[in-house]
Amino acid sequence: MKTVLCYGDSLTWGYDAASLDRHPLKDRWPSVLQATLGGDIQVIAEGLNGRTTAFDDHLAGADRNGARVLPTVLMTHAPLDLIVIMLGSNDMKPWIHGNPVAAKQGIQRLIEIVRGHDYPFDWPAPHILIVAPPAVSRTENAEFKEMFAGGDEASKRLAPQYSALADEAGCGFFDAGSVAETTPLDGVHLDAENTRKIGQALAPIVRVMLEL
Predict the structure, then answer these.
(1) pLDDT 10s digit of each residue in the chain, 212 long?
(2) In the chain, what are the domain boundaries?
(3) pTM for the predicted model, two decimal places
(4) How does strand 15-16 pair with strand 21-22?
(5) Domain 2-209 classified CATH 3.40.50.300?
(6) Residue 150 region, left (φ>0) first, then alpha (ψ -120 to 50), else beta?
């Protein structure tokens, strides 16, 4: 059996801006990916609200720095055949940095961690699929409008930055914004239809990367 780890933020966790709760398990994109791929693949969802690529954010009771937590996650779920990384939306917050180049550098650090990790039992490092999240969109939600001020324009530049990095590093790449868009309710999160679209679109890419 092949194992796929989905490493992300609230888009992977399944935050629902309409209910201010969590999408049903069946609607979250890792679950849709699992259902589309079938039973011979184990898909593990590792999403945390507010997670960044590699930057500190102490506004929650959990470590949101994706680079610091990743080694523990890799050890927890090893052996892995593929890790799907969809991060960068929270990097667009002005108090993080709001810069797509810095987010790309954060993704580069995650790639280095995955490939340089000391896996037990001589297990090899997994393949890496970098996914650019759908761009932040304009919203009338006052809190999120300020929380992601400028993020609508900056986040549009994540996909080309990530694509170039994936080519340089020999990773897979997918632009989730090519199939999904964020909800105007808060400009950041996904409704059920759009999160399902990501899981469906990733399935053929995962099959190719795992040579299924």
Answers:
(1) 999 999 999 999 999 999 999 999 999 999 999 999 998 999 999 999 999 999 999 988 999 999 999 999 999 999 999 999 999 999 999 999 889 999 999 999 999 999 999 999 999 999 999 999 999 988 888 888 788 888 888 899 999 999 999 999 999 999 999 999 999 999 999 999 999 999 999 999 999 999 98
(2) 2-209
(3) 0.97
(4) antiparallel
(5) no
(6) left
